[in-house]
Design a protein that fits this description.
Distance between the termini: 18 Å
Number of helices: 9
Oligomer: single chain
Number of strands: 0
Radius of gyration: 16 Å
């Protein structure tokens, strides 16, 4: 799939829809989308290694639900401040690590920030695009990427309704996908 043709209008739509959502709708959408990132290999280890905080799926979800995000934000700021890209021992993170770290940053951003939810959704697209470009089965990943654009539009419609509360939609959507294979 040539994502370049679709990404700009899709991104604009994401931002427009997210701006119209309530705080509760944004929170539920964050909880749903972060489920995708938990499926990536080493989610908790990547965060622990780069941000130096222990993160479990249950605790992070609880903290997002309750708005207890300051400790994550502080840890991310501290970690970012300590990065010296010009140091002799600096190692640039792997692409999947970057996707995970960006997802954490978006997930723990202020709940009233629609751009963070859009960032999580765009990150899913970027991750699938990465798999398409670097796997031995680009057609498989291209198909998933195409399905993802439709899935995101469906989720945005559902999120716009007050009844949206199924935060497991991403886990269900990708439960049979092996992200460890690349």
């Amino acid at each position: 799939m040539d994502i370049v043709k679709h990404i700009q209008p899709h991104t604009e739509n994401l931002h427009n829809v997210c701006r119209r959502l309530s705080t509760e709708q944004l929170k539920n959408l964050k909880l749903a989308v972060i489920e995708f990132y938990y499926l990536l290999p080493g989610f908790e280890n990547v965060i622990s290694r780069h941000i130096q905080i222990p993160v479990t799926k249950d605790q992070l979800s609880t903290d997002i639900s309750n708005g207890n995000l300051e400790s994550y934000q502080t840890a991310i700021e501290k970690s970012n401040a300590e990065i010296d890209e010009y140091a002799a021992d600096y190692e640039e993170p792997e692409a999947l690590d970057i996707f995970i770290l960006e997802a954490l940053d978006n997930a723990v951003a202020d709940t009233n920030t629609p751009a963070s939810v859009a960032g999580l959704l765009i990150g899913v697209i970027n991750t699938l695009d990465y798999y398409e470009n670097f796997s031995d089965e680009p057609g498989y990943w291209s198909n998933l990427l195409e399905q993802e654009l439709t899935f995101q539009n469906e989720i945005l419609i559902a999120a716009g309704k007050e009844a949206f509360s199924d935060t497991s939609v991403y886990q269900k959507q990708y439960q049979d996908v092996d992200f460890a294979v690349l």
